[in-house]
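TICKET #2291
ISSUE: user wants both folds in one file
ATTACHMENT 1:
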Amino acid sequence: VGDSSVLTCTPKSNRTMVTWKIYPKVGGSCTLGYRADQNKTERTNCSGSMNWKFRPDQDPALEIQQVGTAHEGIYTCEVVTRDENFHETYHLTVLVQPRLSLHCDAQGNPVCQAAAGKPAARISWVPEGNSSSREEGHGNGTVTVLSKFSAHSTNGTDTTCIASHPAGDQSTSIAC
């Protein structure tokens, strides 16, 4: 989320037309097109965050600026030459790194929260011990994971919460 993403489309010589067809999971489809015979580009229903990375007559790559979960979906590049057609399809999945926090509850147990991640983070503890977790889904596709560590005789010693996630692992420690 928040980064720019570039989807390449194989540059073929003698291109007569290039079309990006975008089918997001949420909302309507959009297209970006280029016709070489008219040296003309067109866009239909595409947000301003999606555009050609360079001039489409030189490189047909698509750039998505400030990627968000609304950009998830199927992206197909179609290249037409004098001799044949080429298709490349991307299935764009957006990762959202969760916000990690750790506190001690009223009973002195460490409670770790990996908030609003996509997909849900996996929480583990060091030292290993008993823990219970629950997940809460949000309307935007993100998930908050809450894990409570319950081990005997951890008073005064650091307990570390580790959130494993495809967008990057995080850890934080606390002594309750």
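ATTACHMENT 2:
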Amino acid sequence: SHIRHAWDATKSVAQNLAEMGLAEDPNKAVPIAKRGLLGMEVESNGQEERKKIVRKPYVLNEMEYEASLPEKKSNTLSRDLIDYVRYMIQNHGENYKEMARDEKNYYQDTPKQIKRKINVYKNFYPEEYKAFVASLKQEKMDVQ
């Protein structure tokens, strides 16, 4: 979006990118040393490139700032998986073999697979899991 706002339609791509301090061709921006037949580096023709004037440095600065921001965690579990795990815990507690035989185990998960799914749920929603287990213990106490 920063490039889009600073773009000048009357200029070429190369001119626009040069004004922003960006490279049009990455091979020219970071030159690779040419090697001779024996593996020795060969010097270039001695032609020095003229210095490019960056007229729109704010574009580069804004892009660097955005790149330095930490990435947000947007991982969530599906509602179906959450319901499945809560149902299994509610009906079977910690008995994974019993969970594997349950009729709601549509995907025929093994006890280890079910345990892994429950652990994923615990890691994603630790507070919700603790509250759920506490409510189950409360229900058992009320029944007795």
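RESOLUTION: both attachments delivered.
EXTRA DETAIL ON ATTACHMENT 2: Residues 126-143 form the longest helix (18 residues).
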